[in-house]
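During the no-cost extension, the postdoctoral fellow (Dr. R.K.) reprocessed legacy sequence entries with the updated structure-token encoder. One reprocessed record is reproduced below for audit purposes.
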Amino acid sequence: MADPEKLVFILTHGPEDPERATLPFVMGCAALASDVDVVLTFQAEGVRLVLDGIAEKVEAPGFPPLADLLPMFQELGASCSPAARA
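Re-encoded structure tokens follow.
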């Protein structure tokens, strides 16, 4: 049996760049819905996205608010890691 596909997103942008901060979550949700394993790792400014109250303030034009994407992302079975794993 083949190993499942896996995507690793490294988030390096925080709330100051809402489009780049939101896009990995949008793409991750789509991948998870297609039965692809997804891991997020947060570095540099991206770490701020998981601090209390920050996600509620991140909204990029044309994308759902980050506060709406986070629970969906978790429900679909994504995992988060402080460092990328193979």
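DSSP finds two helices and three strands in the chain. The chain has a mean pLDDT of 86. The remaining legacy entries will be reprocessed before the final report is submitted.
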